[in-house]
Amino acid sequence: MFALRGLAVSLALYLILYGVLSMLVLWGWGLAREAGKRLLATRLADLLFALRGLPVAAAAVVTLAFVVPSFLLLEPRTSAEPVGEIPLALGACCLLLLGAGAFNAVAAYVKTSKTVAGWLAGATVLPARDSVPVFRIRPGVPALTLTGVCVPRVLLSDAAAAVLSPQELATALQHEMAHAHRRDNLKKLLFRFCAFPGMSRLEAAWCEAEEMAADDAAVASVGDALDLASALIKLSRLAPVHPAAALTTALIHNSPASVNARVERLVAWNERRMPRSRRRALGYPQAALLGTLLGVVATYGAILRDMHALTEWLVR
């Protein structure tokens, strides 16, 4: 009974925190996006990803760092206190939510693996660029895409290789390498696991910001920007845009309006969009995090007592 009560309470608190924080993110991410438009595309993409992952990360940290220890340390093991209907129901809903997320992630991974295996049939390996292998594939679609969650690979179609100049191909490949360095396919898998209704618009905004961030990382001059813009135009005309496989990142996968916006942005490229060193930008968040951790350590006992009082109220 003790273990069942502890599991039910922990899952119930996790579900409550996850739901409340997810609703807050759904309400406020648009404001954050508007405020973040003044940031570099890389910073905006990082901000949107942090907002998307905040509910599950914060709920997991609070549950594992406070809820579980408070119950194990302060709850009498000899108590015959029954488990209330509310924590049991919430715990069951939490298990269903976690199970649905796991199923969603596994299904997307399996489906993507089968699709990529079909694309790789008869592929030839090209010289690696920046430690990421490049495969030349026969199908015309996708023209250029990054696959692999943990082990990235770039797929280049014969048609794309034929229409792009060497300079255009080089910048287009650099774009995909930027996605590989930022682990964008892994982030998409995490999104699948952290399912919550209404998050599709936030994920689409993150995807758009990531494309612009990869564009910025791929170019270092006006010439590079024009080459990448030319590659976008040529590949968008090569074949109609098809829905990308769930856990891949294609150079051309959005609507024509999105591609046009990226082309216009590249034509108007300037050096201020180039990614900069992040040491200074990360200093303030690191200092705030360190101060928060020190405060938590200093008041950890009091926090556990308050958390135990909250779980006692929930059990009843």
Descriptive account of the structure:
- The protein is of the alpha+beta class and 316 residues long.
- It has one domain (2-315).
- The chain has eleven helices and five strands, in the order αααββββαααααβααα.
- It has helices spanning 2-36, 41-74, 85-119, 158-163, 166-181, 184-193, 200-218, 222-238, 256-267, 279-298, 300-315, and strands at residues 124-129, 132-137, 144-147, 153-157, 249-250.
- A five-stranded mixed sheet has the order 1-2-4-3-5.
- Strand 1 and strand 2 form a beta hairpin.
- The protein is elongated, with a radius of gyration of 24 Å.
- The relative contact order is 0.13.
Taking the sheet with the most strands, its summary is: 5 strands, mixed
Strand content: 5-15%
Q: Tell the overall outline.
A: elongated
Secondary structure: number of strands: 5
Radius of gyration: 24 Å
Number of domains: 1
Termini separation comes to 15 Å
- What is the spatial order of strands in the main beta sheet? 1-2-4-3-5
**Strand/helix succession:** HHHEEEEHHHHHEHHH
- Enumerate the spans where pLDDT stays under 50 for 5 or more consecutive residues: none
Write the layout of secondary structure elements.
Blueprint: H1 2-36, H2 41-74, H3 85-119, E1 124-129, E2 132-137, E3 144-147, E4 153-157, H4 158-163, H5 166-181, H6 184-193, H7 200-218, H8 222-238, E5 249-250, H9 256-267, H10 279-298, H11 300-315
Parallel strand pairs: 2-4
Antiparallel strand pairs: 1-2, 3-4, 3-5
Helix pairs in contact: 1-2, 1-3, 2-7, 2-11, 3-6, 5-7, 5-8, 8-9
